[in-house]
């Protein structure tokens, strides 16, 4: 749906290449993304914004036009430092763990609670 509306999709992860390949290639998901940036592609990991900034640059997007999906405070902080808004998924931690972040636009338990229109409105 996002790609049909011209929205670029990127994976920006702290995972090592072996984990990225296992997940994205093993489940045949890589083809759904315009770029994939992993820990090996940047000099510093989260909470530094490097992985998010490289992914945005790879798809030609300005950081302020990006929305990051995260489940960890270090990732939300990295998005904040990159100047990006963030949707938090409470798959590993409760919503309270993200209360201090001013870049969080939504907190959801899973992706089914979101629509592309909600994200564009945020």
What does this structure look like?
The chain is α/β, with parallel strands linked by helices. It is built from 4 helices and 5 strands, in the order E-H-E-H-E-H-E-E-H. The protein has helices at residues 17-25, 50-59, 73-82, 116-121; strands at 10-12, 35-37, 67-70, 85-89, 104-108. A 3-stranded parallel sheet has the order 3-4-5, covered by helices on one side. The mean pLDDT is 95.
Query: How big a fraction of the residues is strand?
Result: 15-25%
Helix coverage percent:
25-40%
Shape: globular
Low-confidence stretches: none
Order of helices and strands: EHEHEHEEH
Enumerate how many helices there are, as a single number.
4
* Strand arrangement in the largest pleated sheet: 3-4-5
Main sheet record: 3 strands, parallel
Mean pLDDT over all positions: 95
Give the tally of β-strands: 5
Q: Could you say which structural class the secondary elements and strand pairing correspond to?
A: alpha/beta
Rg over CA atoms: 14 Å
């Amino acid at each position: 749906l996002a790609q049909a509306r011209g929205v670029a999709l990127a994976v920006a992860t702290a995972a090592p290449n072996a984990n990225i390949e296992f997940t994205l290639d093993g489940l045949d998901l890589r083809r759904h993304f315009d770029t994939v940036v992993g820990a090996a592609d940047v000099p510093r990991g989260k909470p530094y914004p490097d992985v998010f900034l490289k992914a945005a640059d790879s798809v030609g997007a300005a950081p302020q036009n990006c929305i990051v999906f995260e489940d960890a405070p270090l990732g939300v902080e990295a998005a904040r430092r990159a100047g990006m808004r963030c949707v938090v998924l409470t798959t590993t931690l409760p919503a309270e763990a993200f209360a201090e972040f001013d870049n969080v636009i939504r907190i959801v338990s899973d992706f089914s609670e979101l629509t592309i229109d909600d994200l564009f409105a945020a």
